[in-house]
Structures are given as structure tokens and as C-alpha cells.
Amino acid sequence: MDIRVTQDPFDPGAESNAFIARGAAAGAAVTFTGLVRSLPDDPILTLTLDCYPELAINQLTGLAATAAARFHLADVTIIHRYGPMQPGEPIVQVMTLSAHRQPAFDAAQLIMDHLKTDAPFWKKEQTAQGEHWVEAKSADDKAKARWE
Amino acid sequence: MKILYFAWLRERLNKGEEDVTLPPEVTTIAGLLDWLAGRDEAAALALEKRSLIKAAINAKLVQHDTSLVGAHTVALFPPMTGG
To answer: Is A115's CB within 8 Å of B7's CB?
Structure first.
């Protein structure tokens, strides 16, 4: 298990390759990468994530352990960045390794659905009109609830 | 005891952390939120929707009715929006 909370940029491809190389014989590896979104009708200049790193490590470690036990994972990695980021940059990467694809997909999804509401990160969007804190979405609570 | 503030709560209170000495009657997160809100107008405004505020004691998530016994660091923050 590898849990990282960092202000440094990370290379999603290199991370994925290293993860697969460590457990190539397991059978199925899933990688999810979350990127800074900036759409034409809602352009963002900078996304800044505030973070409580100590709690984030505790929450993500617990989440990874829960997913690993429930889906019998061979390995799991969660990387989450904080600080200022530009559109297109990776924010988060979740990688799961299992004997078969379904548990690997499910575990990655469970981790992301819980991470959204349970890990102490807060997004602030800077646009041409100014800056604002992103509000928590009820859809994220619903996405989490389906795993209960 | 140290209190940490994050995101818009930190901005509205204009501080990221502070050291406080609590009166003996403040024994839970809920009590702490009430006590902080009673200190000044900025805090009263920032903590207006108190039920939304989340809390951690010694870097573990807790509920509002959790006791402050053994707490050396309390963190208060809005709902999380990571990922």
C-alpha cells in the first residue's frame, strides 16, 4: 500500500507503470486519474487545493485498507496533490491491483466515491471573474452511499 | 489546545490556527463551536451554519458530540471537496 499527499506534481504514466511493474503477475490493474477541469463555458485559470495533510494520510490509509479488505486487493496506491494547479494537471490518482478486473474497478470506484467526501481537501477555483470555494455536492454523498 | 482552521473557515476567521485555553464547561466539539462563536462577531458569522462544520481531534475525524478529553489539536473545516 502506497499513500501519498503532496504539493509536488506527479507523472500519471510513470506512476501507473511503476505500480504495474511491482505486481505484474496479479492479473488486473485499474488506474483512475483526476485532472483539473476547465471547460469552454466555465474556464478556470487556477485550481488551488487546501489540505490538512496529517488527517488526509489517516483518512486515505483507512480508505485504502477498507477497499483492500473488501475487494481482496493485491496492492493499492492513492496519490493526492494539493496547492495551486493549472487546468489539465493531475490532482489525484488511484490504482488498484487484483486477480480479476471487476474487484479492481469496484475498489477504485469505492475509493474515489469516499475520497470526495471523506478526505480533507478543499477546492478553490480562480476564474476571470474572481475566486470562489467549490461547494460540496449532494451527488457526491449519493455516490458514496451506494457502497453501504 | 491548538485549533486549526481550513478553507473558507480559515479565510472568514482570518487565521489558520490559534492556541486557546478553554473554560471548564466546554467539553465537546459542539461546546467548542458555541464558545468560539460567542467570542466575536466574525466567528459568530463564520460559524452561523454550525451543523455544516466538520471536526477532527488529533487528526482523526469526530462528531460534534465527541469529548475534548485528550485533545491537543482540534481541526475545524467545511465539507470536503477533494478528488
So the answer is: no
Q: How many CB atoms lie within 10 A of CB B28?
A: 17
Is B82 within a domain? Answer: no
**CA–CA gap between residue A60 and residue B59 (Å, rounded):** 12
The answer to whether position B83 is within a domain reads no
Cβ <8 Å between A50 and B10:
yes
Distance, in Å, from the CA atom of A61 to the CA atom of A107, rounded to the nearest integer, reads: 14
| pLDDT tens, residue by residue, A99-111 | 999 999 999 999 9
A133 contact residues in B (CB cutoff 8 A): 7-8, 78, 81
SS3 of chain B: helix, strand, coil, percent, to 5: 30, 25, 45
Residue A138: pLDDT band (50, 70, 90) is confident
Q: Is residue A36 less than 8 Å (CB to CB) from chain B?
A: no
CA distance A33 to B83: 9
How many structural domains are present in chain B?
A: 1
- The yes-or-no verdict on residue A141 having pLDDT over 90 is no
Note whether residue B25 is domain-resident: yes
Domains assigned to chain A: 2-145 (3.90.1170.40)
